Amino acid sequence: MATAAASVRPPGRLRRAVASDHVAGWMFVLPSVLLIVLFGLIPVVWGFVLSLQKAGLISPSRPFTGLSNYQHIASDPLARTAAVNAAYYTFLFVPISIVLALFLAIALNQKIRLIRFYRLAVFIPVAVSTIATGIMFLWLFDKEFGLANFLFSKVGLGPFGYFDSPQGAMPALVVMTVWGWLGFDTIVYLAALQGVPAELIEAAAVDGAGRWSQFRNVVLPLLGPATLLLVVWSTISALQLFDEVYFVTHGGPLNRTFVPVFYIYRLAFTSSYGFSKAGYAAALAYVLFLVILALTLIQFWLGNRVVHYSS
Amino acid sequence: MSIAVTDRTAPGAVDTQTLPGETGMVERPRARWLPFSPWHLLLMPTAIVMLIPLVWMLATSLETIGQTRHFPPILWPGRFQWSNYTATLRAAPFARWFWNTTVVTTVVVLSNLLLCSLAAYAFARIRFLGKQVTYFLLLATLMVPLQVVLIPTFLIVKRMGLIDHLGALIVPNLANVFGVFMLTQFFRTLPIELEEAARIDGASRLKILFTIVLPLSLPALATLAVIQFLWTWNDFLWPLVTIINNTNAFTIQLGLQNFQGAHATDWNLLMAGNVMATLPMLILFLAAQRWFVRGIATQGLKG
């Protein structure tokens, strides 16, 4: 990235030009860098310091307590509950949303009538906020007057309790969040599908490959990178589920939807624990971060052994 | 939180204005047993299922309270009760929340466009001391999830005296790493010859950025703008922890949440509020669909 302009200048002015480049460069990046350091980098370090302290958000003193916050996590039944629930949610959400998105992307890649309407219908929840989605699904899944129980009653099922039932709350959350995320995953797959070179498919067809074989042997391998991206991405966001739990289920019923970020929020920012557990919350946040980082690395490592990148 | 940034910019650009048949799929004879493509059998039910929550939200927002408390549910009200909307506006300061969100979102989007462009230009085109290290450090923060920085950032914002003010929502978001990264990648793909010619003619860096680079980068800027708009408009956790007691500084999402708490069973009013809160984003989505799609396809991002 050497400034090519500098190289065409007379040698005598070169030194000054390069020197002024340092100043100019920093002038350009300084506002962003300051902001990102203050609100991105410093908090990462401070968060770790907090995790070593007994600290509340409003407590004036924050004594260091070594690793005791981290040690406490191991014996905290609520942390365990949160971990189990996060794993359960992730195992449901990630495969369901990705498999559905793959089917939909293939369907939405066809040249048929109404295709713009179909795409719009699948994409549009991307623009709807988690709170608005929550209100809609609280209503759809209302025990007494909701549309879902009405439709189920038509086929002789139900009524179900959804967010109010210990067994149903998590699956209902999965349905709601899949609705919200499906458009996102589908767009990523659709982009990957449209990146498949037509010549490859034509070549396979010329070689006598049937439609299924074309898909299985040509298209599907080329979707590998997109799939890996979506698996990693969905896992990260699934483990950080918060808005829907906070707003729709409040972690209940019977803590069945009690997830890590919700616990962290309650520890640090609510009166539930007397505003005194910010240090412990920071430790939990760091552990979650490390878990996410480890899973991401494992997924990329595993994925790269399976996925083929085209040059 | 946005690590999954790929540089597959080329295949990433799904253009919803052109039909995908033109981009690769070999056309095949239609199945004989149906007068229409069998794909409709999958897509039509899917489209209906995806749209049901939105359509029922709209329908419920126009019902009387009696109609909402009816089983079987009334799928579409015979007479529209528009007064639900005025009643909702009277019951809660939606207009105020709407205004707050508009201010916050506008300032954040414009500031990101400006500051990220400046930084990205330097990272892409200027050689300066410490550039690589700085760029790497910025990128590293992309991998950190929000909850890790949530508490310290709150303490910083609190020390700045911004808690319960709109500033708490604006200041920490004035520039974000994702924007810097995305624009840097984009600027690097631009041909450098025009800029070199302008340099020889004595144009300043700033002038080159604003008269040559940015006009060539409108697609990238539009993409960044709509994605940033979406994030900011729909953000919930950060406003939740920083705007605590001051309902006058609520965003529309906080307001909706608050309104739901106060009117948990007034489904017609709740849905009227929900329609009003969601409509601006839906309109923007319809108007700028291809930028949304492009933003998501290239970066693989949502909040």
What would your notes on this structure say?
The complex is a heterodimer of chains A (311) and B (303). With 311 residues, chain A is mostly helical. Chain A has two domains: 4-51, no CATH class; 68-306, MetI-like fold. Chain A is built from 14 helices and no strands. The model of chain A is unreliable at 1-7 (pLDDT under 50). By secondary structure, chain B is mainly alpha-helical. Chain B has a domain at 93-299: Orthogonal Bundle (MetI-like fold), CATH 1.10.3720.10. Chain B is 66% helix and 0% strand. Chain B has 16 helices and no strands. Chain B has helices at residues 9-12, 39-61, 65-68, 83-91, 94-125, 131-142, 146-159, 167-170, 177-189, 193-200, 205-216, 218-234, 237-242, 252-262, 267-287, 289-299. In chain B, helix 5 (94-125) crosses helix 9 and helix 5 runs antiparallel to helix 14. Chain B is globular and about 75 Å long. Chain B starts with 8 loop residues before the first helix and ends with a helix. The model of chain B is unreliable at 1-13 and 15-27 (pLDDT under 50). At the A-B interface, helix 2, helix 4, helix 5, helix 6 and helix 7 of A face helix 1, helix 2, helix 5, helix 6 and helix 7 of B.
In short:
The complex is a heterodimer of chains A (311) and B (303). Chain A is mostly helical and 311 residues long.
Write out key terms for the chains shown:
heterodimer; A: 311 residues; mainly alpha; MetI-like fold; 2 domains; 14 helices; disordered N terminus; B: 303 residues; 16 helices; 0% strand
Give the radius of gyration of chain A: 26 Å
According to CATH, the homologous superfamily of the domain at 93-299 in chain B is MetI-like
Average pLDDT figure of chain A = 89
The fold-level CATH name of the domain at 93-299 in chain B is MetI-like fold
Question: How would a crystallographer describe the biggest sheet of chain A?
Answer: none
The CATH superfamily label of the largest domain in chain A reads: MetI-like
Quickly give the CATH architecture of the largest domain in chain A: Orthogonal Bundle
Question: What fraction of residues of chain B sit in β-strands?
Answer: under 5%
Quantity of strands of chain B, as a count: 0
Shape of chain A: globular
Uncertain parts of chain A: 1-7
How many angstroms does the end-to-end distance of chain A come to? 24 Å
Task: Give me the CATH architecture of the domain at 93-299 in chain B, please.
Answer: Orthogonal Bundle
So what's the CATH class of the largest domain in chain A? Answer: Mainly Alpha
The first-to-last residue Cα distance of chain B is 8 Å
Overall tally of structural domains of chain A: 2
> Do you know the CATH topology of the largest domain in chain A?
MetI-like fold
Helix/strand/pairing category of chain A: mainly alpha
Q: Beta-sheet strand percentage of chain A?
A: under 5%
